[in-house]
Amino acid sequence: MQALGVPAVCAGLIVEAGYAGAREIEGVPVWEGLEQLARHPDAAVVIAIGAPDVRRRIADAIADAPVAEPLVHPSVMLGRTVALGEGTIVGPAAVATADVTVGRHAQLHVGATIGHDARIDDFAVLAPASTVSGNVHVGEGAFVGTGAVILPKVAVGPWSVVGAGAVVTRDVGGGVTVVGNPARPVQPSA
Ligand SMILES: CC(C)(COP(=O)(O)OP(=O)(O)OC[C@H]1O[C@@H](n2cnc3c(N)ncnc32)[C@H](O)[C@@H]1OP(=O)(O)O)[C@@H](O)C(=O)NCCC(=O)NCCS
Measured between alpha carbons, how far is 74 from 6 in angstroms, rounded to an integer? Predict the structure, then answer.
């Protein structure tokens, strides 16, 4: 990965207290407890957690920590007028065309595509191969599932979920889960 064209070095992985996994992953140390950040004042943070609500909780908990420049895989294609917020991760083969704005701590996964004049707000996730058309607004913390398609000029409300493979033809309210083609609200399991 690169941070704005500069190869990024991962100094360590910080996990929450109580994590029972490995102490080292591919040679990168695993540090337990968010307070470990204070020991690494030169490091900048990327929150590599998929769930938008958890990512925001962590971001709030470490609000004083420096956030990394966007982390962008070298295979990504970004138009000249694409703006990415701090802490945002862009995975392999993602594409954003023209006049696209992506907020902070967002995630654009493998092969996600964003059309012109789209806005993706903080903490939102575009899962692999999802397609966001032109003039779409994806609200804060919204999760667009794998292979979902958002038609042009549609707004996906904050903290809503678009199921895998859904085709969203009209605006989705905040905190709603939609599935299917055309996408319709569904009651998510508890
Ligand atoms: C939409 C989603 C969030 C619902 O999850 P859930 O709350 O656990 O819901 P359930 O699995 O209990 O399904 C509820 C109903 O919706 C249906 N459903 C769930 N996901 C669906 C989807 N993507 N498309 C069509 N129908 C779907 C289920 O069949 C079920 O229908 P039923 O009540 O008639 O049996 C989930 O299925 C989904 O698509 N998540 C996206 C996953 C993804 O893309 N991850 C990216 C990984 S990087």
Answer: 10
CA atoms within 13 A on the CB side of 157: 11
Q: What pLDDT digit, counting tens, does each position of 86-95 carry?
A: 999 999 999 9
Catalytic residue, from 40, 73, 116, 137: name it.
Answer: 116
Q: Does 116 participate in catalysis according to the annotation?
A: yes
User: What ranges do the domains of the chain cover?
Assistant: 2-61, 71-178
Whether the model clears a pTM of 0.85, i.e. scores above it, the answer is yes
Does domain 71-178 bear CATH number 3.10.20.600? Answer: no
Residue 2: the pLDDT is: 59
Q: Going by C-beta distance under 8 Å and a sequence separation of 6 or more, which residues neighbour residue 185?
A: 176, 177, 178
Q: Please state the atom number of ligand 1 nearest to the C-alpha of residue 50.
A: 48
